[in-house]
Amino acid sequence: MLIDIYRQLGIPADYADRCGMPPQAECAQLVDAGLDMFGRPVLLERATRQAWRQLQSAAAADGETLLLVSGYRSHDYQRQLIQRKLDRGQSIADILRVNAAPGFSEHHSGRALDLACPDQPPLEEAFEDTSSFRWLLAHAARYGFRLSFPRHNTQGVAYEPWHWFFEGPGVGAAAAERA
């Protein structure tokens, strides 16, 4: 099925070999995580939802407001996202610098969050200049989250200060202690 989608979208046949990201299966057990900043329902993997709530509460206790922009995305949603960009005239090469091909987006796992803060446009690099981002850098690992695409990442994906991945309990805490 993904081979057909790749052919439709013009994704190179060797994408999986050169993208630098592991394949991501669609999460089979999703739970309601509330609404995103636009009022749309968000689904997450159960442990991720729990960690997200803890992260959000801890940030609020420190005076930071973290907003969800997106969570789980299906392979088909990712396909539609890429198709819309192609329809607007973007090249597949440019799109794949900022969006993983279906089957490789961390959002498929239900463990990826795109985050924002009030009074800032979402999904923009300027998020790195906010106190919310600085708070995430200092505290997110305690809750099992890591910044997926820092500057100059090995995957060759554009810098995304808003994109955080839940690695699991204890994983982030161990990373924070090593830092």
- Average per-residue pLDDT, rounded, comes to 93
- As residue ranges, the low-confidence spans are 172-179
CATH architecture: 2-Layer Sandwich
β content, as a range?
Answer: 15-25%
**And the CATH topology?**
Muramoyl-pentapeptide Carboxypeptidase, domain 2
Number of helices: 7
CATH class: Alpha Beta
Strand order of the largest sheet: 3-4-6-5
Which descriptor suits the 3D outline?
A: globular
Which structural class is indicated by helix and strand composition?
A: alpha+beta
Task: Offer a concise description of the structure.
The chain has helices at 2-9, 15-18, 46-61, 75-87, 92-98, 131-139, 171-178, and strands at residues 30-35, 41-45, 67-70, 112-116, 145-149, 160-166. The protein is α+β, with helices and mostly antiparallel strands and 179 residues long.
Q: What report would you give on this structure?
A:
The strands form 2 sheets. This protein has a 4-stranded antiparallel beta sheet, with helices on one face. Strands 1-2 form a two-stranded antiparallel ribbon. It contains 7 helices and 6 strands; from the N terminus they run H-H-E-E-H-E-H-H-E-H-E-E-H. The chain is of the alpha+beta class and 179 residues long.
Question: What is the topological layout?
Answer:
Blueprint: H1 2-9, H2 15-18, E1 30-35, E2 41-45, H3 46-61, E3 67-70, H4 75-87, H5 92-98, E4 112-116, H6 131-139, E5 145-149, E6 160-166, H7 171-178
Antiparallel strand pairs: 1-2, 3-4, 4-6, 5-6
Task: Please describe the structure with a list of short key phrases separated by commas or semicolons.
179 residues; alpha+beta; Muramoyl-pentapeptide Carboxypeptidase, domain 2; 4-stranded antiparallel beta sheet; two-stranded antiparallel ribbon; 7 helices; 6 strands; 36% helix; disordered C terminus
